[in-house]
Amino acid sequence: MLTLEHVSVTYDGVDALRAVDLSVADGEILSVLGPSGSGKSTMLRAIAGLVPDARGVVRWNGDDLTRVPPHRRGFGLMFQDHTLFPHRDVLANVGFGLRMQRHPRAVVDQRARVALARVGMAGFERRRVAELSGGEQQRVALARALAPEPRLLMLDEPFGALDRERREHLVGELRALFTSLDISVVFVTHDHDEAFALADRLLVMHGGVIVQAGDPIDVWARPSNAFVARFLGWNVTSAFGGPLVAIRPEDLTVSAPGEHGPTGVVVTRTFRRDHHLVTVRLDDRDADELRVAVPVDHPPPDIGDTVGVQIANGRGLRIDP
Ligand code: ADP
Ligand code: MG
Fold first, then answer.
1. Which ligand 1 atom is at minimum distance from the Cα of 208?
2. Measuring CA to CA, which of 64, 156, 250, 273 is 20 to 30 A from 89?
3. Total-model pTM
4. Rounded to whole angstroms, how far apart are CA atoms 30 and 23?
């Protein structure tokens, strides 16, 4: 089990990570979600031992790792810019970590082949990395991280460079793979869909702090504050009277103005497969905007139209600012 106790990192007076406490159970897949600059990469680097002046303690099964160098922690890391050796073949790339551990050549090759097969790349051993597609390179980088059989695998925005369809496919495969390998995984992303698809448990980070942690379904259904709600795409508003509430775009509806509820002007409209996402700038609320999901079987309003906004479902979720 991985444990962080009050881990903090300060760069040039900027607190990138603030007294983070965290544990990751054996075999657990933890997704870490947060906007750019929220401290996600810093947390992974601190766990890996790559931040020399991190404060606090990182433990594995209770043992303090402070004096254990990165390559002896038994942790695997995969970054978006995976820095494969472009002119070497796939097998040599995947065997890299094992060679560093000074295993005999035959063992290195054997374990590298096993790792390649796990990621669906058997048969690519002798191909040069420069001749692979982006998605194939990503799989090779994953095989390289898995080959030394780490007890913890950390992935930092690994699919940023891939197109959406490929990413969705890979995320599904990864969940199955990690479950079968029974290793702990910390997966960092700013993409909600990826984070939710992979997670047993989800963390949301903001400003170097964990602002919410829990079962992904609970986090999705009950964001704990206004930041998390907005980050997950909810409206946070008091435009309907009463206290501040978080309400999802699909729980709002637009109509001709004049009925109850606030009115405003449609400023954007985008087609999103099963709905139009419409942004309404409210007339008398300091340009506050509401996002409304209009089902595709309803005629959507045009940009520039004046509309009324009503709550269609529920009452919204009372929320702290
Ligand atoms: P994320 O991965 O969530 O985008 P980071 O962990 O990379 O966030 O960064 C957290 C904060 O620390 C940001 O404000 C960033 O600018 C700052 N930061 C990250 N790395 C360094 C560094 N090497 N030197 C100075 N500041 C850094
Ligand atoms: Mg990052």
1. 10
2. 156
3. 0.90
4. 10
